[in-house]
Amino acid sequence: MDWYEKLSKYFPIEEMKSKAHMELLLKEKGDVYHKDEGPYHVLMYAEFDTFIFIDYVWVSAKSRGQGIGHQLIEKLKQHNKPIILEVEPVDYEDTDTEKRLHFYKREGFTHAQSIGYNRRSLATNEENPMEILYWSPNDESEEVIYEQMRKMYESIHTYKDEEIYGKSYQPVDEVLTYDEGRESEDILAGLEKDQIK
User: Fold this and answer.
1) What is the mean pLDDT of residues 159-177?
2) How many Cα atoms occupy the beta-carbon half-sphere of 53 within 13 Å?
3) Rounded to two decimals, what is the model's pTM?
């Protein structure tokens, strides 16, 4: 199985970029967009001057519990910049969503409760609300994280979208909102303590 198959078997179709899109990013934005691949992991991320965005991280079920995910995150933390990622809200039917949240909570991530993020999938044409998690070495505000998400959305998610998919993603102002009064529960706070080791 190649790296793309591993990711597409694990992530829902509405969250996946096409292989052509990712290969184009690696080729044309190789200074920003990176692939870190090993026998038991695939990590796709974009590194900008002031932050890192994790696009996809996959760790083989066979090797879970060996600390591979932790090592990948630690390696990114060494860059001493905020690390941002998108997660699905907890779906109790899908235990993986909760395991992922436990993992990021253990790694010291925070839920950006002021940031709303909802984009329509080009694959399914359905709205796909996501939550933003971030880790910040210098206590950046959620407003700073929001601005970084906007930059990432415009330079990575929508890169040559029309050329690749034949249609465009929505403009950033329709997808991302910043509202300090947004009614959103902290998705990490509700997790059972140390339920999953």
Assistant:
1) 96
2) 22
3) 0.94
